[in-house]
Write a structure and sequence with these properties.
With 171 residues, the chain is an alpha+beta fold. Helix content is 40%, strand content 19%.
Amino acid sequence: MSKVCAILCLALLAFCPPSFAQQSVPADLQQQMTETEFKAAGLDKLTPAELSALNAWLQRKVSSETAVAVEQIREQAKEEGRKEVVDKNRGFFHFGSNEPIESSIVGEFSGFAKGKRYTLENGQVWQQTDDARLAGVRRSAPKVSIKPGVIGAWYLRIDGFNTSAKVQRIE
C-alpha cells in the first residue's frame, strides 16, 4: 500500500500546482473510489470504526509522503541549479569544477601567441597569458582540452600537440 501512496503523491506533485501539495487530500476512501473498486478491495467488509481508522492512516501517509516528495524535489532543483552555475562559470578565477574542459576552437587555429584569444564551441573565451609558441600550425576547428594547474592556472592544449599554453578565461 505504501508504494501506491508514494506513486499517488508523486503524480499529485507532477500535475498539480505547488500550493496543492500543501492542501490535504480527501481521506474518505468511499469518495475516492468507485463502488466497484471499494467492494473489490474488500473495504465494504470493514466496520465504520475500521474504515475511519484506515482513512485516518491514509491521510497521514499521503501527507507524510507528499512532504518527503516535495523536499526531494526542492533538493534536486537546488542541486541542478548549483551544477548549472558551476558549469557556466568554470575557469573564472578559482570558481567551479576542476574537471578538464573538452571542446573545439571556433574557426581556424594558427598557433599560440601571448594575448591571443581562443573562442570555444561551448561559448567560452580564453586568452593566452604566457609566451608559449606553436608556430607554423594551422588547423580548422581543432579539438582542445583545457586543464587546471596549480594556484588557479589553466592550460590549453591542441589535440595532437604536446605544447600547452597558459590561459585565463575572459568570457
